[in-house]
Amino acid sequence: MTLAESAGRASPPTARVIAILDFLAQHPHDQFGLSELARRVGLSKPTCLGILSTLAESGYLIRDTQNKTYRLGPALISLGHIAQESMRVSPGAREELRRLCETFNATAALSGVVDDRITLLELVSPPGSPVTVRVGQSYPFAPPVGLMFVLWDDRAVRDWLAKEPTIPLRTDSERLDRVIAECRASGYLVERLTPGGRRLYAMMAGMSSTLPDELRALLGELISDIGERVYLPSDEPLARRADGTAADSRAVDVSVIAAPVFDHHQRQVMVVSLQIGRALADAEIARHAGGLCAAADVLTAQLGGSKPGG
C-alpha cells in the first residue's frame, strides 16, 4: 500500500468519535445519557461507552455522575482557541467584532477559505439573536459562492471562476466587471437580501463540493448569475428633489456587508462582515460600511498586512 493510498483511507473508529462530538456540538445546552447517545449516533452501547469514557477522561467531555449524562468538556475550549490562533484569529479580532456588533446591533463575523471551503472563524451576535450559523461551519468555495473572498485580486478572481461551479451558472461578464470595479473603489461589498439568498447558505452548510443533481438544480433556480445579488448604487439612480438635489429616500434589502482583510503580501486572507437582514438607505449602508472597513483595517494591521497598492 502506498502512502497516498493509506492517507486516503477512512478510519471508522475515528468517524465514530467525530459523530459523537458533532452530535453534542449540535446540542450545546443539552446532556445525554449513554443509551440515548448510542441511539442518536447509531452506535452500539458498548462501543459508545468506550468512546465516551475515553473522551471524559481526557476532558473533552464532562460526565455528570449523578445523572449519568455527558456534554462537551473544557478541553475543547483550549483546542478551539489554538485552532483559531493557527488561522490567525487573535483575541483582538474578537474584540473588533464585538465593537462592530455593539455599534450596529448586528452579527459580526470573520471568515476565511480553509482547505478550499469558506469557513466561519469567529462570530459575535447581539444578545438574544437566534443562532443560525456556528463557528467552524463551512461551505463549498466555488461559484457562485465566495465572490467576496476574491474580489480584490485579479488572479484570485480568475482561479475562482475556473472552478467547477456548485450549480449551473450563466456569467454576465459586463456585470461582473462592474461589480469588481465598484467594490474595489468603495472597499466593500453589499449583498442584497433575496428569498434565494436567505436559503442558499443554510442549504449548503456542511455540503461537499459535489452536490446532488437535484440540489444543484434547485440552487440554480435560486441563483444563476455571479454577482447578481451584489447591490451597486449605480444600478438605481437617485431620485431628485424639485431643486435638482439628490433625495436619497430609497431603501435596499441588505443581507450582508463585507470587507477584505489582507496579509503582509497584500493578499486577501479573510472577510469581515455584518449580517444585516433588513432594509437600509444608502446613507445607512455607507455608515455601516464605514465602520466595517475601519474594523477590516484594524484586523489587517494586526496581521502586519496592508492593502494592495498601500
UniProtKB/TrEMBL annotation:
<dbReference type="InterPro" id="IPR029016">
    <property type="entry name" value="GAF-like_dom_sf"/>
</dbReference>
<dbReference type="InterPro" id="IPR050707">
    <property type="entry name" value="HTH_MetabolicPath_Reg"/>
</dbReference>
<feature type="domain" description="HTH iclR-type">
    <location>
        <begin position="11"/>
        <end position="74"/>
    </location>
</feature>
<keyword id="KW-0805">Transcription regulation</keyword>
<dbReference type="InterPro" id="IPR011991">
    <property type="entry name" value="ArsR-like_HTH"/>
</dbReference>
<dbReference type="InterPro" id="IPR036388">
    <property type="entry name" value="WH-like_DNA-bd_sf"/>
</dbReference>
<dbReference type="GO" id="GO:0003700">
    <property type="term" value="F:DNA-binding transcription factor activity"/>
</dbReference>
<dbReference type="InterPro" id="IPR036390">
    <property type="entry name" value="WH_DNA-bd_sf"/>
</dbReference>
<keyword id="KW-0804">Transcription</keyword>
<feature type="domain" description="IclR-ED">
    <location>
        <begin position="75"/>
        <end position="305"/>
    </location>
</feature>
<dbReference type="GO" id="GO:0045892">
    <property type="term" value="P:negative regulation of DNA-templated transcription"/>
</dbReference>
<protein>
    <submittedName>
        <fullName>Transcriptional regulator</fullName>
    </submittedName>
</protein>
<dbReference type="InterPro" id="IPR014757">
    <property type="entry name" value="Tscrpt_reg_IclR_C"/>
</dbReference>
<dbReference type="InterPro" id="IPR005471">
    <property type="entry name" value="Tscrpt_reg_IclR_N"/>
</dbReference>
<dbReference type="Pfam" id="PF09339">
    <property type="entry name" value="HTH_IclR"/>
</dbReference>
<dbReference type="GO" id="GO:0003677">
    <property type="term" value="F:DNA binding"/>
</dbReference>
<keyword id="KW-0238">DNA-binding</keyword>
